[in-house]
Design a protein that fits this description.
Length: 874
């Protein structure tokens, strides 16, 4: 009978049996500390306050829900129909969902995704502690396990990780950093390569963005080893780079498609106009080493580098100790110098971010500084038990003086976030550590180790509490009810639409939880907020009235016209009140939510003439673009829109300045909305909109407007949504009075507000014609199919986002795809009845898979060769 081979060697099994309690503690201690920290901030499983802050509410919760949908077979791995008229889902998953723990969302219903992210955050923080303990065990031979446990706790709770804990996908990268450094050491010292290969591999597939920073740092670390131990490291140059290269190659199945998507849809490289970074000062490194200092993660913040007062003390002890070789100090000092220079010099700062300036959450590589401090602190702790008490006391006194003097003489207008409590806590813990280590040669070491661990738990717990409190005050942890409250009602209505349809359609919620709801509730929508997006499609939609300015991070459905509802097959709207849109009829309700069906929704495709490619879409005129496209598709020459000027009849708490085409609304009373009442006589057969367009988006801030019309109110943020605010549908001539209430900025400057009138008769005439040209599609995963009958050689125009990953087959034969205005997919089709199949494979997928398999095989050959070579040497 064949004996089953174990994954672990006998040596590894014995090691686990002996050390399992410390491995468990290295994981559980940070988890327990963070559970207490979250509890003190009112966050726990099922709590009213959720763990969702900043992007976690609108992005990460919904994207994790979509991943669960994918695991359950409700959507494809390669492509998502759920948002932005279609998206490369593999690229989105690689950026947001690549960690090995992400599949655990399968055990949480979408409604409980806040709890899923809570547990995932704890698990990842615990894994950080576990990975550093494994690193410490193999790196610090002179330390006791409790001391290694203290260092692991410092790493798991470093300020950068906790202050950015809502950016949950970054935490995965921190898990692998210690293992990569351990892997490099094993390559140099023992000619062993598996640790480095698999650590790099897991890092690359977990988060390629952070992988770039860690990759650069690890190369710097390797070069530092060349200076420190040249003979041993010189022999490892080729094995190290071969292992790193093959590990990167093995990850190409997910990295290459993502990189190719970024090349197609990514932003241009950032440039710099100033040499020095914004908001940084000469005391930053000291001030950010006080306990509990949180200065925000928006703009104007400085690097989060705190990893414990003990770590800082021991790192400095390493540099002042005469027992440390000058080469070591020079090598590691050089890495510190590069990181510190990067904090202050914009070119270096941009380099670490891949030459893309971060959108808030600045200095995203600062955790590398913290790791290096802690890495050297381990060696400093080894030295501490061999160093004379006077040096340790002198170092402690020196640090106490630096902290105290920096706080006392800091500029009055700077570092206001450093409180006296932070100063006292820092002094207290620093004094305690200095005293403990000074007594380490006269007391039993075990007692010193226990006390060090207890103090570390207290220090890092206090700091973590302040970080979470800072997030709560800076970003606000959203109430659970905001996410879970509407879930059942919305899901009920969405499920109802699925049962009523066999072919593709789109749906949008006017009163949704967030712009990314379609990912969570698994319906095809238009709006999306994501760093991974199809910029060409979003730009075209912006040209057609769906707001998506700048780099297209945001794409919004709200406040566009009926023409675009029909053209983009928006068959349903969900809302909490009557939407008063021509052609939309209420068909169902679920408590406060109502479902409206659009009788004029067109299919995903339309048969039209090849002349469609010649249609003109003026860049800054969305109404002309809509008119030209609609008429070209319908082969008509209708006039759909006209503008009228409303009369201002009343104002409250507002000073109105009308200066030609610009109207400025200035707040007269602080904290009170500016309220303007308008009147207009509308013609019959009209859908009316109020056009509000900021004169300067940079100055509008997050100002909002509430439209009160016919007894219904709807509030919208002005800068991120469309400009056409619905005022209702009127079959008869009507004198309309409505109110706008502005809040936010004291001064709101707009292009003079006008009333946009859509002629519903002209619109209906065009829609009736387009219905005869409609081609219905069925979609599943990365496939879309359709049957059509072309009267002549025509063009099948679709509202599917164009992407090079699409492949078209007519009656089984591959045919070419054409991009309409670089944003939509179109196909020239022959006359007659035909069957169309569209298949999507992310560009670079097959090449990436080939590279991954090849790299894996090459590493296996390389590994076996090196092992054989090593055994011969022994």
């Amino acid at each position: 009978m064949l004996k089953k081979r174990s994954i672990l060697s006998l040596e590894q099994k014995e090691w686990l049996e002996f050390h399992w309690i410390y491995l468990l503690l290295s994981f559980m201690l940070p988890v327990i500390i963070m559970m207490v920290v979250y509890l003190l901030n009112g966050i726990y499983p099922g709590s009213e306050r959720s763990v969702l802050a900043s992007d976690a509410f609108s992005q990460f919760s919904n994207f994790h829900a979509s991943f669960r949908n994918m695991l359950l077979g409700k959507q494809g791995l390669f492509y998502s129909w759920q948002a932005s008229i279609g998206l490369n889902y593999l690229a989105l998953a690689a950026y947001y969902l690549g960690g090995i723990f992400t599949p655990l969302v399968l055990f949480f219903p979408n409604q409980l995704m806040p709890d899923a992210l809570f547990f995932l955050t704890l698990i990842k923080i615990g894994a950080m502690g576990l990975s550093f303990f494994v690193f410490a065990y193999h790196s610090y031979r002179k330390l006791q396990h409790l001391e290694k446990l203290a260092l692991a706790t410092c790493y798991a709770l470093l300020s950068f990780a906790i202050a950015h804990s809502e950016i949950i996908m970054w935490l995965d990268a921190f898990i692998y950093l210690p293992l990569i450094i351990l892997g490099i050491n094993r390559v140099i010292e023992k000619q062993r390569y598996k640790t480095l290969f698999f650590s790099y591999f897991l890092l690359f597939i977990s988060n390629f963005y952070m992988a770039f920073m860690i990759g650069v740092f690890s190369v710097l670390y390797f070069f530092a080893q060349l200076l420190i131990r040249f003979k041993a490291t010189k022999k490892a140059i080729i094995p190290y780079f071969v292992t790193a290269f093959l590990s990167g190659g093995a990850s190409m199945f997910i990295v290459l498609p993502t990189v190719m998507d970024l090349r197609t849809n990514g932003e241009t490289l950032s440039t710099f106009t100033k040499l020095k970074t914004e908001a940084t000062g000469w005391l930053d490194l000291i001030m950010k080493n006080f306990i509990g200092v949180y200065d925000g993660t928006k703009y104007g913040s400085i690097p989060f580098i705190f990893v414990g007062v003990l770590s800082l003390y021991l790192c400095l002890l390493y540099f002042v100790s005469l027992k440390v070789n000058w080469r070591n100090k020079l090598a590691y000092g050089a890495i510190f110098a590069i990181l510190i220079a990067s904090f202050y010099l914009q070119p270096l700062n941009l380099f670490w971010h891949g030459f893309h300036a971060p959108n808030m959450f600045l200095f995203r590589y600062a955790f590398l500084f913290s790791f290096l401090v802690l890495y050297l602190a381990g060696y400093g702790l080894e030295l501490a038990f061999e160093t004379k008490p006077m040096l340790k006391i002198s170092l402690g006194v020196g640090l106490l003086a630096i902290f105290s003097l920096s706080y006392l003489f800091k500029p009055a207008s700077s570092y206001t976030y450093v409180s006296q409590i932070s100063l006292f806590a820092t002094i207290l813990f620093l004094a305690a550590y200095s005293l403990l280590l000074a007594l380490s040669q006269t007391s039993k070491r075990h007692y010193i180790s226990v006390l060090l661990l207890l103090f570390v738990i207290g220090e890092m717990g206090i700091n973590s509490y302040q970080m979470i409190k800072g997030i709560r005050e800076d970003w606000v942890y959203a109430s659970r009810i905001l996410y879970t409250g509407p879930y059942e009602d919305i899901a009920t209505l969405v499920d109802s639409t699925k049962k009523a349809n066999n072919s593709f359609y789109r749906l949008e919620n006017l009163d949704g939880v967030s712009v990314n709801d379609s990912f969570n509730y698994n319906y095809a929508g238009i709006g999306m907020f994501s760093s991974m997006r199809n910029r060409h499609a979003s730009s075209l939609l912006h040209q057609l009235g769906f707001q998506s300015r700048g780099t297209n991070l945001n794409l919004r459905y709200q406040n566009n016209t009926l023409l675009m509802d029909s053209l983009f097959d928006v068959k349903y709207n969900i809302a909490t009140q009557d939407i008063e849109k021509y052609g939309f009829q209420q068909i169902e309700s679920a408590n406060q939510y109502q479902l409206f069906e659009n009788t004029n929704a067109l299919g995903l495709g339309l048969l039209t003439d090849p002349t469609i490619f010649n249609v003109q879409l003026p860049e800054n005129d969305n109404l002309t673009s809509q008119t030209n496209l609609f008429n070209a598709l319908a082969k008509q020459n209708n006039r759909y829109y006209q503008f009228m000027v409303p009369k201002m009849v009343q104002k409250s708490h507002s000073q109105v300045d009308e200066n030609g085409s610009i109207t400025t609304f200035t707040q007269e009373s602080a904290n009170l909305e500016q309220t303007i009442t308008w009147e207009i006589t509308l013609p019959k057969n009209s859908q009316a909109y109020l056009s509000l367009f900021p004169f300067d988006f940079a100055k509008i801030g997050t100002s909002k407007v509430t439209i009160d019309v016919n007894g219904q109110k709807r509030t919208t943020q002005i800068d991120i949504n469309g400009q056409y605010y619905n005022l209702g549908n009127y079959s008869k001539s009507t004198k309309l009075r409505f109110t706008t209430s502005f809040s936010g900025e004291k001064e709101i400057k707009l292009i003079a507000p006008k009333i946009l009138i859509l002629d519903t008769q002209a619109f209906q005439k065009a829609v009736n014609q387009l219905k005869t040209q409609t081609v219905q599609f069925k979609t599943k995963g990365h496939l879309a199919t359709a049957q059509f009958n072309a009267k002549t050689e025509q063009v099948l125009f679709t509202t599917i986002a164009y992407d090079k990953g699409w492949h078209a087959y007519i009656d089984g034969k591959k045919t070419s795809i054409t991009a309409f205005k670089e944003g939509l997919l179109a196909i020239k089709v022959p006359k007659g009845k035909h069957h169309l199949v569209l298949k999507y494979y992310p560009p670079g997928l097959f090449l990436g898979c080939t590279l991954s398999i090849s790299s894996g095989l090459l590493f296996f050959v390389f590994y076996r060769y090196q092992r054989k070579k090593l055994s011969q040497q022994l």
